[in-house]
Specification:
Layout (H helix, E strand, L loop, with lengths): L4 E5 L11 H19 L3 E8 L4 H10 L3 H18 L6 E4 L3 H17 L2 E11 L4 E3 L17 E10 L5 H10 L3 E2 L1 H12 L6 E2 L1 E2 L6 E2 L7 E2 L1 H6 L1 H4 L9 H6 L4 E5 L3 H15 L7 E4 L2 E3 L2 E2 L10 H8 L1 H11 L6 E3 L1 H31 L2 E3 L6 H22 L3 H22 L1 H6 L3 H22 L6 H9 L17 E3 L12 H24 L1
Parallel strand pairs: 1-2, 1-12, 2-3, 7-13, 12-13, 14-16
Antiparallel strand pairs: 4-5, 4-6, 6-8, 9-11, 10-11, 14-15, 17-18
Length: 530
């Protein structure tokens, strides 16, 4: 086992309705990073899961006539099915209703109470039920919740408080003197919006509902979301358990990947809780942008979700993974439209990647019956092309170290693009016509190597099409990235390849998708009425 460790987490998702493409974005990004690190020789632990307690779920379950546990069980089964569909290679799926997690949360709460970092008081302020967040009057935006823009209500109840204010200076130092939070734009948001006026102590228990982890020494109270949900990153590894081997091995986390709307919880509340527990802080939190739909955040309540099951059935899982990883500028918001999705498939996956593999393997079969050997003579054009291939590993590594999956993919597709140009420059059909067999062999071999290297580099990002390419190259699928260098194969025995990505007729497809969306909307309305 490698002595290089890497622990990566998604946020834990809140099961309150239909899962959509916005949920998939973070998880597919984390999966690509986890797969990349594994192929680079790291011992990776990749965690995802669900945050299942709270008033919103209690109310939804009540409206549906079932228990909160029955309500979340159904949705958790759905998300696990979705992660299976998208080929997510997580090591563990945590649920905050797991018994081991609830016991660990109680121990954490008790430890903080005994230390004096949790005390009893009374909360009076504004409360947003959908976000399950308390706000002061000054934090509201136009009298509404600053996170979701909905109405808030006056709330007062007895509560236990965490002494967040005690850790203000340390949190400010963490955010302003280290690269703990990325991208840098998020740091300014945290400092200006939350630290400037000072941190208030945080309500960490509730008495107005029952669906949560009971406080052991005061059974009127349940542990509120902050201590419950955020602790998942350490309880999943066995913190406060009899078997903390995973915790000792993998903590601190290398990367918490979160959406920008929950950066505050992960870079102010979470590090303060860890400081209070005397637990090392995670190395990095990355707050990515939103996947927007027509300029608006994808949201179950707004009904503007894009169904990943429909998209994968029509275009394949690799097309979804590629779009999510390539189209959205990393760290910024990205806007989903059906036009952009289809354009990206047609341009990159059909024209560039699919076309390169199809043409080259067809020529290998036509000119050499698939038997192509390593050349011994090279032209200046070859030298430039080979240098491009050999530079890829370092370029991808540099971008992945900066947690920029989009740029890493761009680099891979630049080499694919240069391979298509290399065909046009060398005109293999003319070399064949003129009987220049040695030169023709060299050109086809160089193209096969470009395909092998780029397909290897794509394995963390696309999980099925590169494997089909390897089968046609007659080469084993590598489990490391050590072979990202030209000249690794002495002789190829190739076969022709099926069409990896069929070309999509934009006009026809948009009409089909619109029809599907209308049918889905009617179905939803019918279910809602029922």
């Amino acid at each position: 086992m490698s002595d290089k460790k890497y622990y990566i987490t998604t946020p834990i998702y809140y099961p309150s309705g239909k899962w959509h493409l916005g949920h998939c974005y973070t998880t597919v990004c984390c999966d690509a990073i986890a797969r990349y690190k594994r192929m680079k020789g790291f011992d990776v632990f990749f965690l995802t899961g669900t945050d299942e307690h709270g008033q919103k779920i209690e109310k939804k379950a009540e409206a549906k006539g079932c228990t909160p546990k029955q309500f979340v069980d159904e949705l958790v089964a759905d998300i696990q099915k979705l992660w299976g569909l998208l080929d997510i290679s997580y090591n563990k799926f945590i649920r905050t209703t797991d018994e081991y997690h609830e016991k660990a949360v109680q121990k954490i709460f008790n430890k903080l109470y005994e230390k004096g970092d949790i005390y009893k008081g009374k909360y009076s302020g504004k409360y947003c039920t959908p976000c399950e967040s308390f706000w002061t009057e000054s934090q509201l935006v136009n009298g509404k919740c600053p996170d979701c823009g909905r109405d808030v209500v006056d709330a007062e109840e007895e509560s236990y408080f965490f002494r967040l204010s005690k850790y203000q200076d340390k949190i400010k130092e963490l955010l302003t003197t280290t690269d703990f939070l990325q991208p840098q734009s998020r740091v300014n948001e945290m400092v200006n919006n939350f630290l400037k006026d000072g941190l208030n102590d945080l309500a960490v228990s509730r008495t107005s509902f029952k669906w949560g982890v009971p406080v052991t020494f005061d059974n009127k109270h349940i542990v509120y979301v902050w201590v419950d949900a955020l602790s998942n990153y350490i309880t999943a590894l066995g913190y406060a358990d009899e078997n903390p081997e995973l915790f000792n091995k993998f903590w601190p986390a290398d990367l918490h990947m979160v959406g920008k709307e929950i950066v505050r919880f992960h870079t102010i509340i979470w590090p303060a809780l860890l400081m209070a527990l005397d637990v090392p802080l995670p190395k990095k939190v990355y707050g990515h942008g939103w996947l927007l739909f027509g300029g608006d955040k994808m949201s179950k309540s707004k009904g503007n979700v894009v169904d990943p099951y429909i998209l994968s059935a029509r275009y394949g899982v690799d097309a979804i993974r590629y779009y999510l990883l390539r189209e959205i500028p990393f760290g910024s918001d990205g806007n989903y439209t059906n036009e952009e999705f289809i354009t990206r498939i047609n341009q990159d996956l059909v024209n560039d990647m699919g076309n390169l593999a199809k043409r080259t393997l067809a020529m290998s079969k036509q000119y050499f019956d698939g038997k192509v050997t390593k050349p011994t003579e090279f032209t200046e054009i070859d030298d430039t092309f080979i240098a491009n291939i050999n530079a890829l590993d370092k370029k991808v590594e540099d971008w992945m170290d900066k947690i920029n999956v989009t740029k890493a993919l761009e680099c891979i597709f630049e080499v694919i693009g240069s391979a298509n140009k290399y065909i046009d420059l060398n005109k293999p059909w003319e070399l064949n016509k003129n009987g220049e067999k040695a030169r023709l062999n060299a050109v086809i071999y160089n193209l096969l190597e470009a395909i092998r290297v780029t397909s290897t580099a794509l394995l963390p990002f696309l999980t099925s099409s590169p494997k089909k390419i390897f089968a046609s190259l007659g080469v084993c699928v590598p489990d490391t990235l050590d072979s990202l260098v030209y000249g690794q194969v002495n002789a190829y025995a190739t076969t022709e390849i099926e069409v990896l990505f069929p070309r999509i007729d934009m006009k026809k497809e948009l009409a089909e998708l619109e029809k599907l969306a209308e049918e889905l909307a009617k179905e939803e309305e019918k279910n809602h009425m029922g």
